[in-house]
Amino acid sequence: MATKPFAIIAGVGPGTGASIARQFAKAYSVICLARNPANFDPVVSEINASGGHALGISTDLSDSASVRSTFDKISQQYANSPLAAAVFNSGGGFVRKPFLELTEEEFTQGYESQGKGGYLFAKGSLPLLLKATGLAHPPTLIFTGATASLKGSANFSAFATGKFALRALAQSLAREFGPQGVHVSHVIVDGVIDIPRTKAWTFEHEDAKLDPEAIAAAYWHLHTQPRTTFAFELDLRPYVEKW
Amino acid sequence: MATKPFAIIAGVGPGTGASIARQFAKAYSVICLARNPANFDPVVSEINASGGHALGISTDLSDSASVRSTFDKISQQYANSPLAAAVFNSGGGFVRKPFLELTEEEFTQGYESQGKGGYLFAKGSLPLLLKATGLAHPPTLIFTGATASLKGSANFSAFATGKFALRALAQSLAREFGPQGVHVSHVIVDGVIDIPRTKAWTFEHEDAKLDPEAIAAAYWHLHTQPRTTFAFELDLRPYVEKW
Amino acid sequence: MATKPFAIIAGVGPGTGASIARQFAKAYSVICLARNPANFDPVVSEINASGGHALGISTDLSDSASVRSTFDKISQQYANSPLAAAVFNSGGGFVRKPFLELTEEEFTQGYESQGKGGYLFAKGSLPLLLKATGLAHPPTLIFTGATASLKGSANFSAFATGKFALRALAQSLAREFGPQGVHVSHVIVDGVIDIPRTKAWTFEHEDAKLDPEAIAAAYWHLHTQPRTTFAFELDLRPYVEKW
Amino acid sequence: MATKPFAIIAGVGPGTGASIARQFAKAYSVICLARNPANFDPVVSEINASGGHALGISTDLSDSASVRSTFDKISQQYANSPLAAAVFNSGGGFVRKPFLELTEEEFTQGYESQGKGGYLFAKGSLPLLLKATGLAHPPTLIFTGATASLKGSANFSAFATGKFALRALAQSLAREFGPQGVHVSHVIVDGVIDIPRTKAWTFEHEDAKLDPEAIAAAYWHLHTQPRTTFAFELDLRPYVEKW
Q: Where are the transmembrane segments (chains A, B, C, D) (predicted)?
C-alpha cells in the first residue's frame, strides 16, 4: 500500500515506544527506530502478525550519519506515502550522580541523546511532515519529556540539561512550524512507567506506575487535534505521584 | 434511568460550554449551569431532542447560596446516579482596563467569578465525585483556564488575578484529591474561541480561532485517562497563535 | 523635613516588615501599616529614637475604607514629600486545611488579604509613586510572595489562591507601570523566616531560617536598581531548603 | 597578597563581563577568562592601574583541555587564596536561523558554549569554592541566562537549547551545593545590554538597554547574601521591555 500514511517512532523498546507504535499502527504503517534491533523486533513482529505494517531500522539517534542514513532509507521506501506523525521517545542519556563524580562523557550524554538526538530526528522528519498531504489529521511531531524537563534536581545535572534542551527545541519548533501546519508537542512523563524494567519496583499504592498504553493514547489524542486547537504541552503522572 | 452517570457543566453558553455538554451527553446525563437560562436552553433542548438527557439549572456561580441550592437539587434528583465529571467553565470576571481606572467591584469580579466560583463549584461537586462508583473512567473535575492563567498582562489585573487563583485552586485540589482517585485537571485555552460572539472577528489566517468541539474532545480525552496516567495541565491554541 | 522622601511598608509586625522598615528608614521617613498598633509600635519607636522618622497608622489592609482613609492621611501629611517606595508585605490569609473542611470565609480570606489587599494598597500608592520627583532611585512597589505563589499544595488552596492572585497583580502592574518609570517587583520568600513566632521551631541544620534583615537588604537592592535594569522577580530561601 | 580572596569571571568582553570584573575587583583579585585576550586585556589593565589585582587567562570555555589547563594555573598561582566567587558569563553559541537551515555544527554550538561550557567551568570552580575559608560572604557561583533561558522562540532553537541546558545545570548545582554552603544563582538578562557592540542600536525610548554596571551590582548583591537567604533566580530587564 504505497500511499498509506506512515509514522516514525524513535526510541522503541519494550515500554512506551512499543505502546506508541502499537497505537499508531492501528491507522498507519509504523517505522520503529532503536540502536539495538532486539528492542524493536518484538513489536515489529507483533504488528505485522496482526495485520499491520511495521518496519524496524537500527539507528543510533545521537549519531548524525546513522540518523541521516535512516531517513535516506525512509525517503526511498516511503517516497509515495505521507508522514503523518513522528515521535521522539529516546530514553538515552540518563545518569544520576553527584556532579563532581561525572565524567565529561557522562555529562554530555544527556545532551547527546536528548538535545542533539532531538535535533537530528526533527531535521530528518520535518521536511517529510511539511510535504505530507491527504492526511486525516495535521502532521505531528511529538517529543517525550520527563520530570527532569522542568526541574534540575540534585545529581540529575546531566539528564536535566538534556531534557531542558529537548523542551527548548520542542518550543522553538512549535513556534516555527505550527504556523506551517505541523503540530509540535512535548509530553512530560512525570513518574515511573510500568515497563518490563520496572516490573519489580513496588510502591505503597497500587497503580502507582504510568501505563504505557495510556501514554500512547494521549499521544494519539494530540495527533488527532485539528490545527485550530493544538496542545503544546501535557504532563502525565500517576494519581499518587508527589509533585 | 436512575443509575446512568451524570456530568455537571458550569458555565454553559453557546460556545465551549455547549460543546462540552454535547460531548459528555454522548455518555452521560448532563446538567448545565448558567445564570441566564437563555444560555443553556438551546443545548439542553438539542441534547434531549436527540435522545440524550440534559437538564439546565439557573445558577449564579459566584453566589454561595445559589450554588448550594443547585447542588441540593442535584443531590436529590440524582441521588442514585454517580457523578462522572464536573467541569468549571465560567467565563465571568473578564475586564480589560488600566489599573487606576478599575473600581473595586470591577477588580474583585475576576476573583469572584473564577477563584470563589471555582471554590463553590468544587465544594459542591467533590463530595459527589468522591462517592461515585461503577464508572468507566475515574471521576473527573476540570477547570477552564486562559492565557491570563499564566501571564498577568498590562490592563488584565482583574481577570489575571481570578485566573491565577483558579489555577492555584486546581493545583491544590489535584494534589489533595488525585491520591483519592479524583482526576483534577486545568486546561489553558490560549486564543480566541470560535463562538457566536466572535464570529465577526477576522484574522489574517484561516482557522485562527479555537474550535469549541475540539476543546470538548480534549476534555473528554482527559476524562478517559486511567488513574495511572492523569494529565494535570494542557495548553490549547490555534496553530497561528503567537505565544 | 517636608521634602524628605518617604516609604510605606504595609504589613509590619516584629519580623520581615520591621526589618524592611528599619532598612528603608536609613534613607527615608517610613510609614508602617498594620491593623494592630502593637505590631508596628516597637519598630516605630525604635526608628524615631535612633534619629529616623517613622509613623504607624492602624490599617485593615483588606478593607477599602480603612486603606482609603490611611492614604488620605498620608496624602495630607506628606503632601510635599515624594513617595520613594511602597512595600506590600501582608502575611494575612494563611490557612492550612483539607479543602472540604474550609468554610467559605476561610477560603476567601486568602484572596481578601493578598489579592484584594494588594489591589487596595497599589491603588493608593501608585498615584503617589507616579508623581514622585527628585528621587535618587526609581519609585518602587514591591510585593511579598511565598512558596504558595508558585505552587498550589494540598491543603493550601486558600492561601495559594491569594498568593497566586497577588503575583498576577504584581506582573500586570509591572507591565503597565514599568514603562511609566515605576519599578514593580515580586519577591518569593520560600521558607520559614526567623521571627519571634518561629523562634522555637528547630531544624536539623543551623541557619535554616530566612533572616529578615537579609530579606530587607534584597528589597533595598531592588529599590536601588536603575530603570535600565529592573528585576521583576527574586526567590529567596535558606541554603538547606528543599525546593 | 597571597591570601586575598579571588574571583573568576568567565566570558569577559567589553560589556557585562568587564563590569562584573570591575565590581568584584573592589574586594577581590579577579581572574578574567576569554578566548581572545583582546577581550579582557583592557579591563585587566584598568583594574591593575587603579590599584586592584587582575589577571587574564586565554581560555576556550567549551574546550575541556583549555578549561582544565586554566584551572591548573589558577590552582597553582592562587593556592593560598580562597575562591570567593565564580561567574559564568559566556555569550557564546548565539545563532538565529530557521531550523532547517541550521547545520549540525551551528545547532550544537548553543550547547557547546552554554551547557558544556557551564559544566566545565563548574567542574573547575566548585572544588575551589567548597574549600574556600575565611570569606566575608558565602562562596558564590553565578550563571548568566537570557530570554532564551525560559522561552524557545522560533529560529532560536540552537541558542535556547544551550540556555535551557545552562539553567538546568544551575538548578541542579544549587540543589546539590547549596546545602554545602555554596550559593549558586542564575540571572536572566532579558533585553539588549548597552555595550560597545550595541551602541548604534536605537530604541523608541531612552534608557531602553540594560546597563552592565547595574547587572554587575545585582551579581554583587547576590554574592553578599548570607546562607540563610540565598536567591536562586533573578530576571533583569529595561523598564520599557515587552515581556
A: none
